[in-house]
Structures are given as C-alpha cells and as structure tokens.
Records
---
Amino acid sequence: MGLSAVRTGRVCDEIVTQFEQLIESGEWPLGSKIPPEPELVAALGVGRNSVREAVRALEHAGLLEPRRGDGTYVRATNGLRAAILRRARRSAALDVLAVRTSLERDAAAVAALRRTDADLAAIQAAADARRASCDGGDRAAFVSADLAFHFAVIAATGNPVLIDLYAGLTEALQRTVAEIAELDHDRAAIPGHDELAAAIAASDPAAARAAADSYLAAARRLVEGSR
C-alpha cells in the first residue's frame, strides 16, 4: 500500500489514517520499526511537525512506541489491542488467570471442532517444545514455549477477534506464566497441556475444555498458595 502525498486540509488526521492503515494491513508489522522521520516527510510531502504530531497521537493511542536512541516501533495493531495492553500490564496474576479461564475454556472446545491439519501440527509441535522445556533450567525458554502452545490453540479456533484479544494479553501472559514458573519448581507437574493437545487431535470438545480447566485450576492453586 505504501504512503501517498497528503492533500487534504486536515494534514495530521490524514497522516494518522495512513499510518493506521499501514499498521492494520501488516505492512508495518507488530514489533517492527517504522521508517525514519525524513523518509516519512519525503513520502508524505508534509512538514516534520505534521509527521511528529501524527506519531505522537499514535503513541498516546498505544499503537506506536518510541525507543530512545533507536526509533519508533509498532506496539499494537489497533486501538483495542492497545487498550488491552495498557490494562493488562497493571493486572494481578489472579485477574489474568480469570480472564484466561473465560477465554481458554471455550477456545479449547472450539479448537477441537475447527482445527485444521496445519493447526494440529502447530499445536503438537508446541506441546513437544513445551514438554522439552520443562526439563531445562531456562525459565525464559519455558515461558516462551508455554505461550507458544496456548497461542497455537487460540489460533486453531479460526476466530480473528479472539486471536486479536488474546494477542493483546501477551505482556500480562508472559508476566503471569513467569510468576507461575517461579512458584512451580516442577513445571511438568501442571496437568492438562498434553491432554489438551490430545483432545484437540481427537476432535473432542468436552475433553478439551476439561483439560483447559485442569491446567488453569492448577495455576490458580499455585498463585493462591503464594499469597
């Protein structure tokens, strides 16, 4: 899609609209660094102040994130995800687990009904990686593997709204999983993950929901026991 010269009277609004379109379309992907200011000025045919004003507006909205001495990065792909990010980063572990319970129980059942062969392969690979990470001492690797498994299950629902909502919880999920991993020295002891993968493979929504209940309840007990 790219940028085009701005010709309207409301210069900043037009720039903001173009930037939002680039972010939502994926041309500026989540986590990517946007072009430097001189390049944006040249492409849009506007002054530096207009570009700066538009960038600041999207920073305040939570879509862009400035990094001192490095540039500006895409932090969220839409306003909803940005709002979830702002709230989730201040949420306690039990609050995050309550939201996960609401989302993941039904998502597990839906994934069991809608999963494709590609989804199943991704879930199984993520489950294998998670299991392998349980035996290592690298907690960051475990957190990454655990999140990859749950994201694979959510993706298997094929519901873009749910996928976007869940992605907005990424920071809170990372923090919560890390906290649980710190409390649980035997990471393999939390049941339900392999069972969930098996239930989805068997297209069994009831078993998938029960497996999600199992690991979420175990996580809640760990967090409550630490209070």
Note: DSSP finds eleven helices and two strands in the chain.
---
Amino acid sequence: MNIPTGVLPAIRKMKDFERALETSNESIVFLETRLSQLKSLVDYTKRANKKALIHFDLIQGLKADEYGMEFLIREVKPDGILSTRGNVISMAKKHKLLAIQRIFLLDSIALEHNLKLIKRFQPDCVEVLPGLVPSMVEHIRTETNLPVIAGGLIKQEEEVNAAMNAGAVAVSTSNRALWSFK
C-alpha cells in the first residue's frame, strides 16, 4: 500500500476540486461532500491518475458501519480512508484500503488516548492535527513507528517544511496556495 507523500490537497469546496485535479499531486483528500456526489468525484480523480482518499467521518449521508464501508468499497472505490474512529480504520484495513487514523492533539491526555487507539487499531498511517507542532509529529512517528501526515492550521511554506523536517511524510491542507509547493 502506497503511503501518500508531499502536499495533499484537501477538498472542502467543489471549486477547489478542479484546481486540485490540475496539480501534480498524486493524491486528493475529500474532507466534506455529500454521498450522492462522491462516486463521480472519485471517478474524475482516478481518470486524472490520482488517488482518492476519503475522510469517512465527514461524508454527509454515510454511516460509519459495515454497510457504509461495503457501499463505499463496491460503489465508490476509493484508494484510502481517513477517520478518527477505530472501527472505520479496522474495516478499511479488512478491505485492504489505505487506513489513515486522524488524531487531534488537544492536550497530553488526548495524546495518551490516541497512542492507545493507534496501537489497538494499527492504521497504515497517522494524520496529526494540528500539524503545526513539529515535536509532536516526531513524537507520534517515534512512538508508533508509522508514517505521519501533518494537517490542520498549516498556512505557510515554512510550516510545511517544519512538518516535513520533523519526519512527516506528507502535509494535508485545504490552502490552495500550498498545493504546488514541493
């Protein structure tokens, strides 16, 4: 399973989708959309020779259960799933999709809790939010021995560099100005 690298365009609005297709980025992350639009978005993404990564928790109309995952796999055919939910990560791995555990680092208790979840559900990769804390990117990478994606609140090239220098394999951002950053 290929772990995404570099800058990952994260799509919240449809006007950003076309712009993301035109970039040289190999993957696109779908953060918010309706279930009825998802299949065509993934089809267009794949026609552009890009991988479609879906944030399962943010798709309107998709239920986080085995039937929701079955629908996603059979009808939508994404390349990977992002989720904060352990059961979704387990289902993604069971169906051989790239499974990215998204974690929010609010405080030391959240960090401890998330590390336990990661060890329990064994995702392929971890997305750390906010991605502005390079020392936490490095800590998560060291503690889990998994590739780390930094995301959330990243607005400048220096922040992308700081995350990558701390060991992040990728940076996800909805900031279009950073999508062409290498």
Note: Helices lie at 14-22, 35-47, 66-76, 86-94, 108-121, 134-144, 157-165.
